[in-house]
């Protein structure tokens, strides 16, 4: 299993657009065989940082999702929403693996 951690720098004045973007991706990642663990939005502290976590069974499954999402109409609409609204200023992506479960 691989878990993808995304850290977003967002435009705090466009939070509603980012929320729309996030809701779309939760559904889309799940449709493509992943498990979305949610988006985490600013509350206290930094007003322009948000996070997302989602997992795929393997790095190969994640790479297939990335390839397939580029031609999927709903994914393209989500990409366009972020581009048009400029709700995302930048993002960082990390790949994590879970610690083995209890013995």
Polypeptide structure, described:
With 103 residues, this protein is of the alpha+beta class. The chain has a single domain, classed as Alpha-Beta Plaits. 40% of the residues lie in helices and 31% in strands. The chain has 3 helices and 4 strands, in the order E-H-E-E-H-H-E. The protein has helices at 15-31, 59-69, 73-85; strands at 2-10, 35-40, 49-56, 88-96. A 4-stranded antiparallel beta sheet has the order 2-3-1-4. A hairpin with an 8-residue loop joins strand 2 (35-40) and strand 3 (49-56). Helix 1 (15-31) runs antiparallel to helix 3. The longest helix is centred in the N-terminal third of the chain and has 17 residues, at 15-31. The two termini are 18 Å apart. The model has no long low-confidence stretch (mean pLDDT 94).
